[in-house]
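Late entry, evening session. Most of the bench is empty. Finally got around to the prediction I had been postponing all week. Sequence below, unchanged from the version circulated by S.P.
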Amino acid sequence: MRVSVIGCSGAGKTTFGRALAARIDAPYVELDSIFHGPNWTPLPEDEFQARVKPIAAGNAWVIDGNYGAVRPIVLARATTVVWLDYSRARVMTRVTRRSVARAVWRRELWNGNKEDFRNFLQPDHPIRWAWTQHGRKRVEYAARLEQPEYADLVVHRFHTPRAAEEWLQRVG
């Protein structure tokens, strides 16, 4: 299996992706860990693509993330898409709780980066991004996955964590 895990920031892509990778004994990759360099510096698009291509070329993997710059690379090789399409209320609860906990505990995320309360008001902070993009991304993902080039993908769209967990328990 080569699985792309997508969903709004805070939906639980990382937690789900890690669990799925363990169940199918496949490498797990979080695109955020590649994209965000030290001091939250974004990786240039060409370098980002160059780092993702050899990963996507693998025989089995679980990749979580929604980056447009590498989406064609990931989806061209994916066999399956898991879309964690939860309600705005659920996503906002999760992303807020996660961001606050990360800021309080100052846990390193990737490449030395840590959440900071001062960043909560930035337009690209996950809380603001989730709030402003939730509805738009739902429409965008649905339209994209209906495209003919993705007709061979097996798509699992889950509206609740329980449904996602039940599917996960049946995999592997």
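Two things to note before I forget:
The chain has one domain: 2-170.
The domain at 2-170 is CATH 3.40.50.300 (Rossmann fold).
Will write this up properly tomorrow.
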